[in-house]
Specification:
Length: about 170
């Protein structure tokens, strides 16, 4: 995130809330590193445990038991929950993944699910995507996920050309 990136978000009227799991607040921290970030960053929630995802963001137990915490479905619900937690926000980004070490054949180390949700008046739209960064090591996966989440926020709108899947 550069000062110019922050100015782009300010000019677009972005009021962002983050919902972070594997990045542990890195996205919010990258934004808050710059003077003037309070014009964009409304707040951030670090919901590392499933209990926190449910209690703070309203992620459904059924979603977690059916799809797991590392899923687009969970990321969608995190993003919508973050918007609802901070009514003054108009954009949320959610990140949940396996930074490592660990993982499985089904959900390998380095898999991270992202979701963007946008509020336009009373209408909410959410889209998600999964990126397999690979077994880069915990720190590098977390930084790669942070950088990707920031790029998604800079895209400005939830556009179909971002290769994000619609919610639901």
């Amino acid at each position: 995130m550069t000062p110019a990136d922050l100015q782009t978000l300010i000019a677009r009227g972005v009021k962002l809330v983050t919902a972070e799991s594997c990045t542990g607040g890195l996205v919010a921290a990258a934004l808050s590193d710059h003077p003037g970030s309070s014009a964009v960053l409304m707040g951030g929630l670090v919901t590392y445990s499933n209990d926190a995802k449910q209690a703070l963001l309203g992620v459904r137990a059924e979603t977690l038991s059916t799809h797991g915490a590392v899923s687009e479905e969970c990321a969608w619900e995190m993003a919508i929950g973050a918007l609802r937690a901070l009514p003054q926000a108009n954009l949320s980004v959610a990140i949940t993944g396996i930074a490592g070490p660990g993982g499985s054949d089904y959900k390998p180390e380095g898999r991270v699910c992202f979701a963007l949700a946008r509020r336009d008046g009373v209408h909410e739209d959410a889209r998600a995507q999964t990126i397999d960064f690979g077994a880069l090591g915990r720190e590098q996966v977390r930084f790669a996920a942070r950088d990707h989440a920031l790029r998604l926020c800079l895209a400005g709108e939830i556009r179909h050309d971002l290769d994000l899947k619609p919610y639901g």
